[in-house]
Design brief:
This protein is mainly alpha-helical. It is about 50% helix and about 5% strand.
Length: about 200
Amino acid sequence: MTTTDSAQQTDPRTVYFTAATWVSALLGGVRPEQLELPTPCDELDVLHLAGHLVSTVRRLIAIAELGSPDSVSPWSSVHDAGSFDALVEQARAAWADDAALDAPVVVPWGAVPGRSAVWGYARELLLHGWDLAVATGQPADVDPALVEPVAEEFRAMLPPDARVPGVPFGAVVEPRPEAGALERLANFSGRSSDGWV
């Protein structure tokens, strides 16, 4: 994956940890009776999506410490905001050294520098945060300034003509005229807003 010039100039850790603060609030806002609700992420209900969000932080820590997330399952039985927050603090420590951004690592989409891994997991937080928000009736948008660098990196990594079988993102969905920045990012990833907003 080629990192864009502006992404090279932006510290992805700032974006990631800001997104994590938003996701933490969403996790804290999930009510027990909502755990079996469907989400825009195919085949994941709220419970499993929340557990996956927790696991993505564990995987980002493993990337910093081990160079790969392969030792960590993408699924977790833990799904609460407190567990998520504790892991985020571990991730903050694991990625504190600026040199980690240029260290070679292996992620599910290939061999990349550390900064590209952080961008990818920031995208995970924003996209799955949108999924969780619309599924549970919580605020489903964030500051466009947070979304735009992630969207730019995503467009460079996976343009519309690269959506082929096996890629975990569907065809780009035309956004609603009134869609905000995060909804548009979700649409670009292949998620439809129909029935959710």
